[in-house]
Design goal:
six-stranded parallel sheet, alpha/beta, Rossmann fold, about 375 residues, formyl-coa transferase, domain 3
Length: about 375
């Protein structure tokens, strides 16, 4: 019976993923209350050595298994029989060769949702290629866009991975909802390729005569204040433009026909940009942020991640959680980003150590102490 205290209470997930997109998608389900068992090799997820691993895998239980051995595959099969979801992000065909593909596991459990997240999709010309977030950033135009006409720039937040994770979780949730009505599971899939396309929905639009908006917009950009600190100004419509002119003491520009729309301000940026740069250099950042706040203008300070982690806003919303972790000591992780009025999410805790829950999970699956000892002696489990 489902535990209605959390949105996904009672939902059991077998997580065969690694790296970021697949792993973080499973963490999103854990945030909602699902019981997520991360199945790792005896050596562990390749990204365990990265600090981000602690966030990409929080709230899970870990078992370490040799999937290349028949007895290891048998463990996954036993877990899949009682699971609601199996997730994997291997190259197409690898899960099948390991004996944990859709046909095998859904053959054991027709209600199973089997989810695959790949780099370039499960068909097509790049089906066999490996792919990581920056590769897709480059292919899809994001790096060129960030270069703004100069050399391409690599965005150092794995935005393609993170959006692929969100799409993966969305697909699983939709499939679970369908199963509630049909009683039948299915395979769902997405990829980094699909994610980087959806992520740029607005940029992807094209038609004859379309104007380029990727020019330096004087009212939607970074400014350096008089104390050397930076802020971002985000005047996203004409109403904010008028307020900005009042805030900066430039009332004569508010209804200047050269700046009467977003596109006109782009067209006349060589005139407007020096005026705004000079004005923002006349005061410290915090003084300007207060002026902009009182005039209801969207703007914000540029912070480091350390400053953001300690920010009162972050703390107020429970977005910085602290734990004592056996491997690194005092550990700060992001909290759940979703709020529910009737079925609130819970603090799912930190990521597991490698194989931390092998005995617990296998014991619940019917492997007694002697059986587990035998598997461990034969290097099937850790």
């Amino acid at each position: 019976m489902a535990d209605l205290a959390t949105p996904l209470g009672g939902v059991r997930v077998v997580d065969l993923t690694s790296y970021i997109a697949g792993s973080y998608a499973a963490t999103m389900l854990a945030d909602l209350g699902a019981d997520v068992v991360k199945v790792e090799s005896l050596e562990g997820d390749s990204f365990r050595e990265l600090p981000g691993f602690f966030a990409w895998n929080r709230g899970k239980r870990s078992i370490a298994i040799n999937l290349k051995a028949p007895e290891g595959r048998a463990v996954v099969e036993r877990l899949a029989r009682d699971a609601d979801v199996v997730m994997e992000n291997m190259r197409p065909g690898v899960a099948d060769r390991l004996g944990v593909g859709e046909a095998t596991l859904r053959g054991l459990n027709p209600r199973l949702i089997y989810c695959s997240t790949t780099a370039f999709g499960s068909t097509g010309p790049f089906v066999d290629r490996p792919g990581f977030d920056p590769v897709l950033q480059g292919m899809a135009g994001i790096m060129a866009l960030q270069g703004f006409g100069g050399p391409p720039q690599y965005i150092r937040v794995a935005l393609v991975d993170y959006y692929a994770a969100a799409l993966t979780a969305q697909a699983v949730l939709a499939a679970l909802f369908v199963r509630e009505r049909s009683g039948v599971g299915q395979k769902v899939e997405t990829s980094l390729l699909h994610a980087v396309t959806a992520l740029q929905a607005g940029n992807f639009v094209d038609y004859p005569g379309k104007q380029s908006v990727f020019r330096d917009n004087p009212t939607y950009r970074l400014y350096q204040a008089g104390d050397g600190e930076w802020l971002f100004l985000a005047c996203g419509n004409q109403s904010f433009w008028v307020k900005l002119c009042q805030a900066l003491g430039l009332e004569d520009l508010a209804h200047d026909p050269r700046f009467a729309s977003w596109m006109l301000r782009l067209d006349n940026r060589e005139v407007l940009l020096p005026i705004l740069e000079t004005r923002f250099r006349s005061r410290p950042r915090d003084a300007w942020l207060e002026v902009l706040r009182t005039h209801d203008i969207p703007a914000g300070a540029v912070h480091t991640i350390d400053e953001f982690r300690r920010h009162p806003l972050t703390r107020h919303h429970g977005l910085a959680r602290e734990y004592d972790h056996p491997e690194v000591g005092r550990l700060t992780l992001p909290g759940s980003p979703l709020l529910f009025s009737q079925t609130p999410t819970r603090d799912v805790g930190p990521s597991p150590t490698l194989g931390q829950h092998t005995d617990e999970v296998l014991g619940a699956a019917g492997y007694d102490a002697a059986a587990r000892a035998g598997l461990r002696a034969r290097k099937i489990i850790r």
